[in-house]
Write a structure and sequence with these properties.
Layout: E1 12-16, E2 20-25, E3 29-35, E4 38-41, E5 47-50, H1 52-55, E6 65-68, E7 71-72, E8 75-76, H2 79-92, E9 103-108, H3 114-125, E10 131-136, H4 137-144, E11 155-160, E12 165-171, E13 174-181, H5 185-200, E14 202-203, H6 206-216, E15 227-234, E16 239-246, H7 247-270, H8 274-283, E17 285-288, H9 297-305, E18 309-311, H10 318-327, H11 330-336
Parallel strand pairs: 1-9, 9-10, 11-17, 17-18
Antiparallel strand pairs: 1-2, 2-3, 4-5, 4-6, 7-8, 11-12, 12-13, 14-15, 15-16
Helix pairs in contact: 2-3, 4-10, 5-6, 5-7, 7-9
Amino acid sequence: MQSFLSFRSADLGIDLGTANTLIFEKKVGLLVDEPSVVVVDTKTKQIEAVGAEAWKMVGRTPFNRESVYPLKNGVIADLDLTSEMLKYFLRKVRTGVKILGSRIVICVPTETTQVERKAVKEAALALRAREVYIVEEPVAAALGAGLPICEPRGSMIVDIGGGTTEIAVLSLGDIVNKGSVRMGGHHMDEAIIQFIRRKYNVLIGQPTAEKVKMEIGCAEDPPEKTNAEVKGKDLIRQMPKVLSVNALEVHEALSRVVSSVVRSIRTVLERTPPEVCVDIVESGIALTGGGALLKGFDQRIERDTGIRTQLVEDPLLSVVRGTAMLLQQDYLLERVCLKGV
């Protein structure tokens, strides 16, 4: 006999990110936190693996398998795969809750189109959810970071994700000014891959690049003697190779991505009304998202803008935590959800 829990409807919040998809239930907590990646059979077009299982295969698939990120650079690159991936994750949570009769809040990057937003909504409705709301990521991130977005004063959030950095200034429950740049954690990984290829003629995969980034990557000038071991393929000899790279080299590789993010923050600030700027100077900039975990990113933003910048607690969970808060505040949810979707 199934337990009562298996028949319980749930209100779910979903952070549909370029790098990771997270699903949160307000009464339970985090249910899903898996990479937004799918492995597809190139001949049959059948999905072979999704999420954590697919991530283990990245860079290791045979010639007839392909690792695909359905969301790239903050937009939906493959609408069908995005829908199938979302359905897979929602089916996964049905072991404890049922989607039938549920309310679902889904966060999407600001650059997604109306057609893409509608397709995401329909993927959830196909599993018989009662209501589906689409919300822009910076709004949910600001709520999840604890910013007082409904008060008559300005707050600023910088959400550095896998494919984009979303920047927003909010006041009175709405966005005063916003910006988006297609730079994020995946671009940092790619920058490290290309740097090592150019300098050492060694090819590495994304999981290795991400490991190097987390170990010795830094947005500010790093300690010179910090090193990391890198394993890859020598492109001249076509043989496996192990080499050592230092933090200064990785800092150099990441500089273009970091500088682009900082410039975008400055551009948003330049377009922000003066009284709101005063509020931001007093309250500071909240930094969130997986890319914000790069060492020294908060210090770099503070140095270049002159505004106190703070990495929020559990930055990877800010967006999905914000969706849970919206599910508890119906008035605010109706106010911030995207209309006409």
